[in-house]
Structures are given as structure tokens and as C-alpha cells.
Amino acid sequence: MPLFAWFGTFGVSWAFVQAHTLSVTWCTVAQVFETGGSFMLSAIRPTRRQVYRAALVLLASSGLAVALAPAANATCLLPSTTTLSASRSSGTVGDSVTYTAKVSVVVVGGALVTPSGPVAFSYNNGTSSGSLGSATLGSCLLSACTAKLTSTALPVGTNTVTATYGGDGLVAGSSGTTTVTMAAPPPPPPPPPATPTSSSASVTCAAGQYCQAAVKTSNGGNTMNVLSSPSTTQQTVKALMETGKNLHCPQNTDNQTGALGTFEVTVNDTSKTVTYTGYGNTARSMRKNYLAHPTYVGCFGSPFQFNGFVGGVYGPAVFVSSDQLYEAQPGVCSLFAPPCVTVTYNATSTTYKLTTPFGDPPKIIG
Fold this sequence. Notes:
The chain has helices at residues 3-9, 14-18, 26-33, 48-61, 281-292; strands at residues 80-86, 90-92, 97-105, 118-124, 129-136, 145-151, 157-165, 174-183, 200-205, 211-216, 222-228, 235-242, 260-265, 272-279, 300-302, 307-310, 313-316, 318-320, 325-328, 331-332, 340-345, 349-355, 364-365. It has three domains: 3-73, no CATH class; 77-183, Immunoglobulins (Immunoglobulin-like, Sandwich); 200-365. It has 366 residues and is mostly beta strands. It is built from five helices and 23 strands. The strands form six sheets. The protein has a six-stranded mixed β-sheet with strand order 10-11-14-22-21-20, with helices on one face.
């Protein structure tokens, strides 16, 4: 049926419609549909408002685009839906993630309505929450309007990311969510062993960094490298080599040769690894002691109690008053928990690699 014939059904002349600008709101459309979809007008001589209603429905039913004026009442806004997707569902803190929000409008009667304005992106993981930023909807017509945001700001945890469209003068707001899980980054690799330059060293390192100090005896018979894992705070590592000094582990029959190596770390939330190497006669003596009883070596002293070997028996260390330390021979790491020692040797050197437990206080090795 021709368009003008539809207007005739309602007692409205096509010339009358053509003579007036159709500027209607979603409220107008809603009022028509609230009658159950009946478009029959009761008045023989319709008012201008009734003409607007009839014209809107008839134009929309004919597949024509209708320009809707902004609604004065927020309850009359066109409803929208927002969906959100992410370029990754998991990653590591600092990874880049692109979020894509698509906003669609519920179309009435074939009318083409384009939402506009910004979309805000935020996150919440139960522990922390915050804004990721915002992006403006791009132009669109026959498909959902899109806003994209790329961010590296997600923290550790399972994050619920929300895209919130605030609406405009014609379209109501809506939101959508997606989930992105972020893991903590691995700690940086430890630095290569430092080259010893003196018989004492003190190195201060920032939080989150490995920290090490390396020393050697003046005659080159011993070297020691102290490596402390990253701490949550600033830390200082101190190392000292002294010739002519020894600890006094009770019932220790080993021939103690070489220098006394002492180390100290100012934090206790790290693990410490001490590499003590002997050369020449010192290396041969260290290797001979290890081969005589390959389950324990050396003499280890600490201001705090620990377990080790005393007279060949594993148990609590013994306090030595002359040194003011608890002392024992540490067991090998393949058999015993830290503090323990790993032994390696070759034709020119022998190395005792001491490992302390994570969170263990500073120690002294002899």
C-alpha cells in the first residue's frame, strides 16, 4: 500500500504530514507501543501530536530512517547493550592488553540510531580497583559502535574489567565485563659472579635487585662471592677474608687451611649463597677433607642456632664462647636442608657453595 494511503487510514492527509517537521522523541515511540501496538487514532480530526505518532510509525514501518530528538526524561532513553572483549585472557604484569567495547542500541521500528560519547574502562580484583582509562566510540551506522583502549596497568590477580558506556541525550548507558588474570613477573636473573678485587667489600642494592659482594685474599689462595636474592627493601651485603684466622668447630678433626671468610647481609627476607673457593694447597686440603667424609665439610658459624654435624653426628650446633657463635660442620645439600654445602673440585681449585634458607639471618663461614 502506498505511504500516503496509510496516512489516509488514520484520517491524516499526506500534505499535512509534509507540511510539518517530524521531530519526535523515544517517549513518543514508547507511548504508541504502550497501547499494545495499535496505531488506530480515535479522533476523527487528529491533533498534531497524533500526526507525529502516526507518521513516525508509518515511516519506520516503511524502512525509512527517522531522526529522533533528544528525550527530556532519562527514563525515555533508547536502551543499549555493551559487550567487552580483551586481546588476552591472561598474562604477566606489564603486558599490553587491548580492550574492545561494542555498544549496540535496541532499534525500534527500523529506526537507525547511533550512540556517541566516551566509554570508561576499570578493573577490580577483590584486593584493588582502579581506572584503566577511557576511549570514545567511533562512528558507525549498521553495526555496533566500538571503543578500544590499550593498557599495561592491570595488577597481579584475577581482574574483572568493566567497560561502562554513560549514554548520551538519546541512548541510555550500559556496561559489559570480561576477566583477565595477571601473574607476577619473575625476578630478574642473578648477575654473573663478580670479580674479587679486595679482602673486604660492602655493596648496597635497591629493593628488588640481587646484591653481591666478592673478595679474595691478598695471596690469591681464597676467593669468596656472596650473593643475596632480591629483598623488598634496600639491602647491604658485606664480605671479609682474613688469613691466619679459623673457627673452632667442636670435635672437628679436619685440617683447617685457608682464610676465614665472613659475610653479613642486612636483611633477612632473602636467601644467601656463598661461594668459597680455595686454590693450590688450600684446594687440596679442602678436597681431602671432603673425600674423607663426603656428607659434611668445613666449619660454619652463626650468631643463631642451626643444625649441622658435631663430631660426625648431625644435630644442633654447639655454642663456642671463644668465637661467640654457634658452630658445626654443614651437611651436603644433596642430603640435608640449608644451611648446606655443595662441593665441586678440579685439578686447580675446590669450591664449597653454601646455601642458607630463605629468610635466614646473616651467617659467618669459616
